[in-house]
Amino acid sequence: MNVVSTRGVLFVHSAPAVMCPHIESSIAAVMDRRTGLQWTPQPAAPNVLRTEFVWQGPAGTGARLASALRGWANVRYEVTEEPSPGVDGARWSHTPELGIFHAVTDVHGNIMVSEDRIRYAYEAGRGEPAAVYQELSLALGEAWDEELEPFRHAAAGAPVRWLHHVG
Q1: What residues have CB less than 8 Å from 71, skipping those under 6 apart?
Q2: Strand 40-41 to strand 5-15: parallel, antiparallel, or no bridges (unpaired)?
Q3: Which of 77, 122, 141, 148 is a good FRET partner for 51, with 20 to 30 A between their CA atoms?
C-alpha cells in the first residue's frame, strides 16, 4: 500500500506564552519528532507569541495537526495541506471566538465550495439575496479570514524555517 505524501504549513498566529510548550508537545506527538519551534512576539496583540512550522508527512497530517490544537482557549491558528495525487488540499482556521473552520482547496489554495453547499445556500436563502450571501460567506470562511487577517499581516516578514526545498 502506497502512502501518499504531502506538505503544508502550520501558522500559530497567537498563543499565550504559557501555552507554547503544550502546543509544541501536541505538534511533536502528531509529527512523531521534536519541532524546535521559534516563537516571536505577535505585533497584532499584546502578550502573545506566534510561530510557523513547515511540515511534510502523509496525507491527513493537516487534519491531525488541526485536531491536536482544536478548542484551546486564546489560540489562533491555521493549517494548510497541499493537494497530492488523489487527495484534495485543505485549510483549517481556528479562532477562540469562532471555533474551527475547514475547507477543501485546489492546487492554488482557493477554497472549493461544493455543489451541495451552494444548493443549500440557495435553499436556506429562500429567495432573499442577503441570506444567500450570508450562507456563501460562511461556506468561504470569511468571518475567520476577517478575524485572522490582522495577525497574518503583523507576521509579514517574520522568519520561516524551511525544512526542505523543492524544485
Answers
A1: 99, 100
A2: unpaired
A3: 141
pLDDT for residue 156 = 62
Question: Other CB atoms closer than 10 Å to residue 56's CB: what's the count?
Answer: 14
The DSSP letter of residue 140 is: H
Contact 101, 93 (CB under 8 A): yes
SS3 content of the chain, % helix, strand, coil (to 5): 35, 30, 35
The secondary structure of residue 87, as a DSSP letter, is B
Q: How far is residue 164 from each of residues 53, 54, 84, 93, 167, measured CA to CA in Å? A: 12, 9, 17, 24, 10
Q: Which residue has the cell 491531525?
A: 64
CA distance 72 to 19: 9
Cite the DSSP H helix spans in the chain. Answer: 20-31, 61-69, 115-125, 129-140, 142-154
Quick one: 50 exposed, middle or buried, by C-beta within 10 A (0-12, 13-18, 19+)?
A: buried
